[in-house]
Amino acid sequence: MPVRNKIKQFIDNKGITPYKFQKDTGIAPKTAYDLYNNPWQVPHVTVLNKICDSYEIQPGEILEWIRPSIDLENNENK
Description:
Elements: E1 3-5, H1 7-14, H2 18-25, H3 29-37, H4 45-55, E2 63-65, H5 68-76
Antiparallel strand pairs: 1-2
Helix pairs in contact: 2-3
């Protein structure tokens, strides 16, 4: 199931830094930066809960499902 995170977009739209995101959520610094820099890294459920609780958001605001055929086409063009 191809799912990617939209954490970079979320953080950038809020006008905060990955550091502030990490502090707000209480997740490990490496996890925060990895999620910010790698959209294909899907947060563990405990991390997802911390993010959603901290910002009072639904998981769909930071995760999106990608149709497998689109994913394959995008990777072939890279």
